[in-house]
Amino acid sequence: MSQDAKIPFVDLVTPHRELQEELVDVFKAALATAGFIGGPMVEGFEREFALYCDAKHSVGVSSGTDALRFALSAAGVNPGDVVLTVPLTFIATTEAISQAGARPDFVDIDARTYTMDPEKLRQYLQTQCVFDPATRRLVHRTLGKPVTAVVPVHLYGQMADMDPILEMAERYNLAVIEDACQAHGAEYFSKKENCWRKAGSMGRAAAFSFYPGKNLGACGEGGAVTTDDEAIARKVRMFRDHGQSKKYYHDVEGYNGRLDAIQAGILRVKLKHLARWNESRREHARKYNELFAAAEANIIPPFEAPWSKAVYHLYVLQVENREAVQADLAKEKIDTGIHYPVPLHLQKAYSGLGYKHGAFPVCEKAAERIVSLPMFPGLSEADQARVVHAVVRSAKYTGPQNVLVV
Ligand SMILES: *Cc1c(COP(=O)(O)O)cnc(C)c1O
After folding, report:
1. Whole-prediction pTM
2. Mind listing the pLDDT tens digit for each residue in 258-290?
3. 200-233: b (≥16 Cβ within 10 Å) or e
4. Ligand 1 pocket by C-beta < 6 Å: which residues?
5. How many Å lie between the centroid of ligand 1 and the Cα of residue 290?
6. Closest ligand 1 atom to Cα of 210
7. From the alpha carbon of 182, which atom of ligand 1 is closest?
8. Can you list the domains of the chain with their CATH numbers?
9. Which of 3, 105, 158, 379: CA 20 to 30 A from 286?
């Protein structure tokens, strides 16, 4: 590839070209039966995705946002509850909490993993809440509302530290709903169980998104809830289909939130390649790390804890002069992104929660310095070298505090 060819942030075209024949066959099969909603394609995908995630059940829904909302409601989150998550995530996490009728609240992230800091969660539960061991109810001191669930986000494909989160959830009677929308196939080493566990198999339930750019993406919208809990799976099936327990018998008011058959068929085709794609992403992450280390770059690379097998939905680094680095890379036709520039507690949409700058300092500092580099399974080594070269040239040296100490 020539030196000044564009390096995209993601390449969604090549994998579809490679799978074109199989994907078109899915469409033809759907046309042949006009089975567009539900049916064997959806059921087949649900079986295979549950197996892939080491979960007993998977229920296909219309998006990751609906997956989160349905999982929260099915796990017993009621209107008026407080649900905890992190301020560094896509807004869909908190939208789903609000749509379930609850009020989102935040605990800060760990500076290295960018995921929920279990110690901050502990502090929140111990200082902001009162627990009644008799009723096993946890109530927020100043809001006076029950705190009923926690949503750790496996951001960038990096697992949240689940052991301590699950342990606290157990102690304080909180439902854990994993936001695994960026983490299809990521794994966590549970010390408690002494084995590796898949994202989406650890909480009471988990939500996945199949938005086209995710590690497993549809050719349109899609999502899934995974769970080992039969009752939760049944409720999510009801919620996605107007609260029906059978046709035209509505136990509750539900939603139009189904996964359609063509998308399910497409996802079945792609699921067969997911493990290989994730391995490529991990390989590219290793390569980026190696090149940055060799160049002694003034950057902080992603940190993968020993208990995490990340799937690198995104490869995110920290630089001191982010805007300049992005501009320099843009000049060399290298696309970058920021995930995410404004923490949720500082978004206009959440001004009503009353948070000010400084409320979640770890997240706020990260949000000023993070930049996401091109990352997708087909990324070439030559392009990675070009990206690293450009970053190294542009990243400012501001002293030894900028060098990662592991
Ligand atoms: C993509 C994403 C969602 C929402 O998924 P949609 O399918 O777009 O509704 C939720 N949470 C996170 C962390 C995401 O990245």
Report:
1. 0.96
2. 999 999 999 999 999 999 999 999 999 999 999
3. bbbbbbbbbbbbeebbbbbbebbbbbbbbbeebb
4. 63-65, 89-90, 92-93, 153, 179, 181-182, 209, 211, 223
5. 30
6. 7
7. 15
8. 14-271 (3.40.640.10), 274-398 (3.90.1150.10)
9. 3
